[in-house]
Design goal:
Blueprint lengths: L2 H33 L2 H8 L14
């Protein structure tokens, strides 16, 4: 195999691992948000939904 093919395989595996880590981090963040009491999240969110979106959009 040429060095280019090997390098392409390494890059593809690296990209796959990065996506998997990002997805795992996203799932962990959702689990953490679900642990918060809803009344506390409502206080933090305030009136502007663009600053901190409600958890209903994520669940």
């Amino acid at each position: 195999m040429s060095h280019t093919i090997i390098w392409n395989i390494i890059q593809a595996l690296s990209a796959f691992k990065s996506r998997r880590r990002r997805y795992a981090n996203y799932e962990e963040a959702l689990r953490q948000i679900k642990r918060f009491p809803p009344h506390l999240l409502a206080d933090v969110r305030g009136d502007d939904p663009f600053l901190c979106p409600s958890t209903a959009e994520f669940l």
